[in-house]
Design a protein that fits this description.
The structure is a single chain. By secondary structure, the chain is α/β, with parallel strands linked by helices. The protein has a single domain, classed as 3-Layer(aba) Sandwich (Aminopeptidase), CATH 3.40.630.40. It is 31% helix and 16% strand. It contains seven helices and twelve strands. The strands form three sheets. It has an eight-stranded mixed sheet, sandwiched between helices. It has a two-stranded antiparallel ribbon with strand order 5-6. β10, α5 and β11 form a beta-alpha-beta unit. α5 crosses α7. The protein is globular, with a radius of gyration of 18 Å. The C terminus is likely disordered. It binds zinc ion (ZN). Zinc ion (ZN) binds next to loops. Zinc ion binds next to loops.
C-alpha cells in the first residue's frame, strides 16, 4: 500500500495574502501557526474514478482557539467531528485507487459542509452543547475562519476536480460522514443514509445497491437532507459541475473498530463500483 500524504496548501499564507487591513484586533493573530498541520489533507492514492471528500474528518482545533471553552470530553464527541468517517474515506480511496481530500480541523472551527455565511457554519450550540469560544464572534474573526480553514479546503477540491476535468478523467464526487445513533433523545433506525442534491441519479443507484441487503436499514435523505443545509459540498463540487455525486452517512456506532470500518469499506466500495458502472462514465466537462 503506498499512500502519499501531501501538504497541499498552507492556509496561513492565504490569510496573509488576503490581508485583513482594518480587521478587528481579535483577528490580527494568524489562526494557524506555522507548525500546525495544513488544512488540506490530500491522499493521492491513484487516478481512479472517484474523488472522496471528508469535511468532518478531524476534531483538531487550532492552538490559537484553545479548547473553545469546552471540556476535553466534548471534543471527542460527534459534535466536534464524524467518528469513523476519516478511516472510511482513506479506506475507500486506497481500495478504489482514487484521491481523497480530508479537512484537518474540527467542524467546530467552521463547518466546511455549510455555506460560510450561514449562522450554523460557526455554531454556538451543537446539539445540546454550547460552544463558548464561538459566541459573539465579530465579522473579522468569522472571516478569518473562512479564509484560513474553509476556503483553502474547497479551493483544493476545485483544483483537483478541475485538473481531472481538463484531463478528461471520469469523476464521481463522494463525501463520507457519520451520524450519532441518538439525536436529542431520538434513536435513529438507519444504518446508512444516502443524501442527494437536486440531481439524484447516482444517489438512486446507491440506494438500490445498498437496499439489496435486507438486513440494512438505508435512509433516503435521512438522517439529513438538503433542507438541513448539508448539501454544500456535493452541490458545489458535484451538482454545479454536472458530475455524479453522493453523500454517504454511516451511523457512527457501526464504524468504531478497524474491523467494522473494513466491513463498511467493502460494502460501500462494491456499491460505488456497481453504480459507477451502471450509470456509465461521467461526462467529461468543459470541452
Ligand atoms: Zn458530517
Amino acid at each position: 500500500m503506498s499512500q502519499h500524504r501531501k501538504q497541499a496548501r498552507r492556509s496561513g499564507d492565504r490569510v496573509m495574502a488576503n490581508g485583513l487591513a482594518g480587521a478587528a484586533r481579535e483577528a490580527a493573530t494568524p489562526l494557524l501557526a506555522s507548525d500546525e498541520p495544513p488544512v488540506v489533507d490530500l491522499q493521492d492514492s491513484g487516478n481512479g474514478p472517484f474523488v472522496f471528500l471528508c469535511e468532518h474528518a478531524s476534531n483538531r482545533l487550532p492552538k490559537a482557539l484553545g479548547d473553545l471553552g469546552l471540556p476535553a470530553e466534548a471534543l471527542t464527541r460527534h459534535i466536534a467531528w464524524d467518528p469513523g468517517a476519516a478511516a472510511m474515506t482513506l479506506g475507500l480511496a486506497t481500495r478504489l485507487g482514487s484521491p481523497a481530500i480530508l479537512q484537518s480541523y474540527s467542524r467546530l472551527v467552521i463547518d466546511c459542509n455549510r455555506e460560510p455565511g450561514l449562522p450554523d457554519a460557526i455554531t454556538t450550540l451543537s446539539e445540546d452543547t454550547e460552544i463558548p469560544g464561538n459566541r459573539d464572534l465579530g465579522p473579522a474573526a468569522r472571516q478569518q475562519r473562512v479564509d484560513a480553514i474553509w476556503a483553502p479546503f474547497h479551493a483544493a477540491i476545485d483544483d483537483l476536480v478541475a485538473t481531472r476535468i481538463a484531463a478528461r478523467t471520469p469523476t464521481v464526487i463522494v463525501t463520507l460522514h457519520s451520524f450519532t445513533p441518538v439525536y436529542r433523545g431520538l434513536p435513529r433506525p438507519w444504518h446508512v443514509g444516502i443524501i442527494s442534491s437536486g440531481e439524484r441519479s447516482f444517489a438512486e443507484a446507491m440506494l438500490s445497491a445498498l437496499r439489496r441487503d435486507a438486513a440494512l436499514e438505508v435512509g433516503d435523505d435521512e438522517p439529513y437532507s438538503a433542507r438541513d443545509h448539508v448539501d454544500y459540498t456535493i452541490r458545489r463540487h458535484g451538482f454545479d459541475r454536472g458530475l455524479p455525486h453522493v453523500m454517504i452517512e454511516v451511523r457512527n456506532d457501526l464504524v468504531q473498530s478497524a474491523t467494522d470500518v473494513a466491513a463498511w469499506v467493502d460494502r460501500l466500495a462494491a456499491a460505488l463500483v456497481e453504480c459507477a458502472t451502471a450509470t456509465g462514465l461521467p461526462p467529461t466537462q468543459e470541452d
